[in-house]
Structure formats: structure tokens, C-alpha cells
Design brief:
mainly alpha; Rossmann fold; 8 helices
């Protein structure tokens, strides 16, 4: 649970389907640490009784403008096919591995992640083939899997546009004013409005035909 609108919506969908939720937020040294506050607010709003914040500092690895002093790209063409510097090397592999470990301890067999393969920045670890491969890995790499348990990685948003995600969340009664999306916010937490994440969020609300409550606050 990142505190963004995608993970909020994915969690709400899982809750609506009857899952009992535990939430995992990774504090990985990201410059947009403001999102952790939003993750807490979202977890409270969904009534999640157990919210684990795990510190795994990826700044030592670097390689991304989210974990280093590299400039975050702004005003980028969202139709570009190159992978931007906001890609964090192997991030979702690392995150899912941590979630898998916790799931095994909890004796849970379902992991939900809010990845999207349509309105996103082209990250390789948001694609269906990556998720399928990780599901296979989960069976091979865990005691539970070797003993016959089947883990499932749920991606309820993977084939939805940002507008469709927003509409689904609003239908579930979500308050997107609690969320944070910006990669490079100001010191007071205000979104820059120009990074990929801000641009995709703005386009999603525009296409959904509703105002972004975060802008109105």
C-alpha cells in the first residue's frame, strides 16, 4: 500500500470481495516519502487492522531519480516508449518478495498489488508476464509452496485505464483526497503537477469526468 490511488483502489476491491486485509507499506528511501502519510490515512479509511511499515533503504543501490539526486522528469510525453529514470531497479520484485514473506508468516495465500499496464510509465515490473512469473516463483521459493500451498498475486487494476480505476474507486465510496501520487512534491507535500504520476492522475480524473479532490483541498 503506497498511499497512491491505485493501491487504495486495489485494496478496496479486495475488501469488497470479502478478503480480510493486512497492509504493507515500504519506506524505501523514496523522495516522495509524503506518500507514507497517505498510506496510513488510506489504511485507516479502509479499517485495516494491521498495517506494517517496513524500512528497506534502496538509496544505496540508486539508479533511479526516486532514490537519488537525479532530476525527476517533468512534462514528459506520456506516449513515449522509453523507460524513465523514475523506474526503481527491481522495485516490484523486491516489494512482492517482502509481501510474500509476510504472507507466508501470516498463512495468507493471496497478495494484492495495484500495478497497471495501461496508464503507466512503461515499467517492466508492472506487466502481466512479470506477475505470472512471480506467481510461479512464489511456489518454488517458499516452504508453503513446496508443501503444496498455492500463492496468488492479484492485480485487479492491471488492464484498467486510470479513468476506469477512478470510477471503480468512486463507486466503492473512496475519498481520493487522502491519496498522494506526486514523485517530486514540494517541501509542504504539494504535488508538482508535472511529473508522470501527476500527469497520469490529472488525465485520469479528466477522462473520468470528475474533479480531483486533492486539487480542491
Amino acid at each position: 500500500m503506497s498511499g497512491g490511488l491505485d493501491s487504495y483502489t486495489a485494496a478496496a476491491i479486495a475488501k469488497s470481495e470479502g478478503f480480510e486485509l493486512c497492509a504493507l507499506t515500504i519506506r524505501y528511501g523514496q523522495r516522495h516519502g509524503r506518500e507514507v502519510e497517505s498510506a496510513r490515512a488510506v489504511a485507516r479509511a479502509l479499517g485495516i487492522p494491521r498495517h506494517l511499515e517496513l524500512p528497506i533503504d534502496l538509496r544505496g543501490i540508486g539508479g533511479s531519480s526516486l532514490t537519488s539526486d537525479l532530476s525527476v522528469p517533468r512534462d514528459r510525453d506520456l506516449s513515449a516508449t522509453d523507460i524513465p529514470t523514475t523506474y526503481v531497479p527491481a522495485r516490484n520484485t523486491i516489494f512482492l518478495s517482502l509481501a510474500l514473506g509476510w504472507a507466508e508468516v501470516l498463512e495468507a495465500r493471496d497478495v494484492v498489488i495495484g500495478v497497471n499496464a495501461l496508464d503507466y510509465s512503461g515499467y517492466p515490473d508492472c506487466r502481466p508476464e512479470f506477475i505470472r512469473a512471480f506467481e510461479s516463483l512464489a511456489t518454488l521459493a517458499t516452504r508453503a509452496g513446496v508443501e503444496g500451498a498455492a500463492f496468488r498475486i492479484h492485480t485487479p487494476l492491471i488492464s484498467l485505464t486510470k479513468a476506469e480505476i477512478i470510477r471503480r474507486g468512486l463507486a466503492l465510496g473512496l475519498d481520493y483526497g487522502l491519496t498522494h501520487s506526486c514523485y517530486d512534491p514540494a517541501a509542504d507535500g504539494r504535488p508538482c503537477g508535472r511529473c508522470d504520476s501527476c500527469a497520469l492522475r490529472a488525465r485520469g480524473f479528466a477522462e473520468a469526468g470528475v474533479a480531483d479532490p486533492l486539487v480542491l483541498r
